[in-house]
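Human:
Care to share another protein and its fold?

Assistant:
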Amino acid sequence: MAETPVHLKFEGVPFVTFYVGPNKVAFHVHQDLLFDASPVLKAAFSGNFQEASERSMSLPEEDKDSVGRMIQWLYTRKFELTTPVSKKTSQECYMQLAMLNTLADKYDIFLLKNHIVDELFDLTKELRNFQPPLIPVVAYVYNNTTERSSFRKLMVAWYAFGIELKWYELDHTKILLAEASQEFAIDLVVALAAKLEYPERRPPFTLPSSSYHETPPEKTDSGRD
């Protein structure tokens, strides 16, 4: 008989609890499942912190739907968006993915971040014909992720390869880019320059989604990054 996967061995495994949002909505998660996915949360619940002694963590600023999706993914390796994905609802779907990615980025859940990258690639398929993420989504991503974020890189790729150059000539474009973030504008300029200098390069969304997957940093012999 095949051995039960580690992430399905729950007998006798203690729970930890998240209290999410201003209403302190409670989410209970098997400890080992959480620790296996997130070294950050493992450290918080295992060290000399309040979370470790109380077996709970308060997340007053987080979105309960995003936390719910994160926990759904921990158990099933899948997550569901609130809104059915369609051309009409694509911007809301982008934002929900961005908010979920923020949690995954904050807690170093690399497999979840990579799953989100795969979903973004799926949204670029020609048969869907979705509009690229609008500036509010881009601004949220840049305000809530780190420089290494693949989500950031994909936002830049969308604007460099998915939008016609004449859009950049419009009067309101400068205002929109200023609303996004200075970092995004700089990253976009670099990407557009590379596109012009190396026209033979394949557009990012024609590459395998795995080319944008992130990997955890390697640890030194001392166990530290």
About this structure: DSSP finds ten helices and three strands in the chain. The beta strands are 15-20, 25-30, 56-59.
